[in-house]
# Entry
Amino acid sequence: MVLIYAVLVLPVLLALAVLTVDTGRLLLADSELQTAADLAARYAASGMISSSTRSTTAYNQAVAACGDLRADGRSISVTPSAITLGIWDTNTKTFTPVTDQSLANAVRVTLTQTLGGIGSPKMFAQGFGSSPPTVHAVSIAMASVAETEVVSPSQGNMWLAGMPDNSVSTNLQGNAGRYDNSGTSGNRKQRPEEVTLASLGLEEGDLVSFEGLSGVGSNGSGSSNTGPDGNQTWNVALGNSAPAMVPNNSVNGIANVRAPIAACMAVFLSDAAPNTTPAPAGLDFATLAQRDYATIEPLLKQPFFVGDGKNSWGEVQTIRVPAGATRIFTGMMDAWQWNDNTGSFRLKFYRSKTVTLVQ
# Structure
């Protein structure tokens, strides 16, 4: 009788064990996928709201957010169709997809993962003929940001930033024919574009991002026009057209830097003239990896690479405002003689960003 009962009960116990194990695995995978969707939605929304190519940036940042995550032990695939831009209505708590990207204030991310598929062990129930189950996760994040547009001049010499009117620099060349002049507010000459942080609503420690919207420039007559990323096959420094490293010399208390010629650059200053204190060490942006920073924290008087404001795979880059900063200046990278440069770049500053997971 015991043997008979054992034979009858054993399949039931086995089925319960299979159900328990598979259910636990299903719940874990569902939780992992929902976590990924939440992270992807928040990161996609933060990039979307800081970009004029919103759907592309949202997709790139969702992919980046899921890059190191797993569900059921497998990587998570994010397709363009998984990302939907829309408007989140805070009153009705509803999401409405939009075709006009400029109207979007939210991103919906929909992720799907099949358990027991290629690359992961089969579910126990599959051994009894069941189809592999699929889990889904949906998340919506809303974002807002304040923004300001400026024009960054190709003749803007970063080493004349914050200097008194009509300050003259020979750019470490010692050649009077290669001079630049800071001009005046009415005749800017080689003065870079100045924006006060107060006008942007920024304080030290805040994060700001840039976007190169349009424009081209060149580093002199006969040179090719480039976009805000500059000529990335040719790195220069102030006073040196082919530096092997960042030079330790400087001008007007502003550090040297190595970066692509004709690239869009920026530097933070305080209210004081930069030549009243020593220059800090210089930063290096000679390699793609160095230009592909996610966030950088430059010091006062350290020029840094802005480019188009995104890394090479489309993520928005951020810069932390240093202690003591009250102004930011933008201009172009060159080795000397900005006065023969041509063109300009239209930039957008994004700041005061908020991102909220709403569903």
Remarks:
- The longest helix spans residues 2-48.
- The mean pLDDT is 90.
- The longest strand covers residues 134-153.
- Helices lie at 2-48, 54-66, 197-200, 288-291.
